[in-house]
Design a protein that fits this description.
It is built from 7 helices and 12 strands. By secondary structure, the chain is of the alpha/beta class. The longest helix has 23 residues.
Amino acid sequence: MKILVSADMEGATGVTWPADVLPGTSQWERCRSLFTSDVNAAALGFFDGGADEVLINEAHWTMRNLLLEHMDERVQMLTGKHKSLSMVEGIQHGDVDAVAFVGYHTGAGTEGVLAHTYLANSITGVWLNGVRASEGLLNAHVAAEYGVPVVLVTGDDLTCVDAEGYAPDARKVAVKDYVSRYAAVCRTPARTAADIRAAAAGAVSLAGRYTPVEGGPFTVELEFDAEHLAAAATVVPGVAPSGERRVSYTSATMYEGIRTFKAVTTIVSSAVEEQYG
């Protein structure tokens, strides 16, 4: 049995502030250990529950944040950028029995600690077939297309609520409670590690590939905080204006949909100016 862990950082234990997740800052250096603790606890729990392999896919920013040297010796870690499926890279090879979303967060334009969707700012909302979409929802649809269940989600309490919409059967662990976008009531790493490990061990019973879900077509709509960003997004083939500061595109599969989304956000991020956005 092989478990894929998609590891993001904004939803990690103790993380509440942009500097906590911005590579190169002193706060990021400190929070890397907290992030690593959460991810390692999930891996330990999966092994406790009978998993044979755990592959950790780094999914935050530079995708070079976790401390491999502090991980259980049985794990393998996929680190670095420019991966075909980005946050859920590795799910497409037919050998993954379940996926865990560790350190996840809520989507752009919603309440939640460090809430966003792919870009830290600039995107004010994302909708998938008319439903407001977090990264968790988008990635869950990719997983479904490969017949892989989401069995564990960790993050703040609102992230766990969000996960009820796309992975109702998954085990959820809240490591902190939302107060504002930049504040939370946080549990200690000793407690969250124990909670995550126990939940992961129980989540193994939910693992097992099923018949892939062909849920397309998928229409993705994005709203930006500036009109020029919407215009920049239309450079990507198939992306067209859909309203004020909005663009949309339709893909036959979520594999294509998430890759187009990645292209759009890459183009848009390059169009953001330092002072005026």
